[in-house]
Design brief:
By secondary structure, the chain is α/β, with parallel strands linked by helices. It contains six helices and five strands, in the order βαββαβααααβ. The relative contact order is 0.22.
Length: 173
């Protein structure tokens, strides 16, 4: 069973070693953007420079272009090996991006179920609200993604998340 692994930057090297992903998504501010890990194919590493903020009028806010690039990248993943999605702490940007990828793959109607699975597996998840809203618009979900994230409520307060596997096939959870 394939999955998306959400992780903080501090656990990235170990996650690559132990899970052998085929794709990596990095969501960090431009000033902290990392290079593609040594030995990993650059074309399978998406680097999105953005701050973890929900005000779309600030520099390096999540933007629709980030969401569109993520969706295109995710659609090119064949899921034969895991994908790692990480940000600085593994709490907000990476959980929003993973939620977006899973909603896209599942299609309309599963937004609430995916959000509940995210909460169950990652009690610390606090998906970036602006990113989720932009993804909802990009996927034409009519607010379903936003409502589902609002319904799971705020996550447990932590300074850094832990690696979390989010399966593609929720029936095998």
């Amino acid at each position: 069973m394939s999955f998306v692994l959400i992780t903080p930057l501090s656990a990235l090297a170990d996650a690559i070693e132990s899970h052998r992903p085929s794709h990596i998504v990095t969501l960090l501010s431009g000033g902290y953007m990392i290079d593609t890990p040594k030995g990993f194919p650059a074309e399978r590493h998406l680097r999105l420079a953005m701050h973890d903020i929900s005000d779309e009028d600030l520099p390096e806010s999540p933007a629709r272009a980030h969401v569109d690039r993520l969706l295109e990248f995710g659609r090119g993943w064949d899921a034969t090996a895991p994908m790692i999605v990480h940000c600085w702490a593994g709490i907000s940007r990476s959980t929003a991006a993973t939620y977006t990828l899973l909603c896209d793959r599942a299609g309309p109607g599963d937004e609430q179920e995916i959000a509940q699975l995210l909460r169950a597996r990652a009690p610390h998840a606090q998906p970036n609200r602006l990113f989720v809203r932009l993804a909802d618009e990009a996927l034409s979900r009519g607010g379903a993604m936003v409502r589902a994230i609002e319904q799971i409520g705020a996550g447990t307060m932590v300074s850094e998340g832990v690696p979390v596997e989010m399966p593609l096939d929720r029936r095998r959870v």
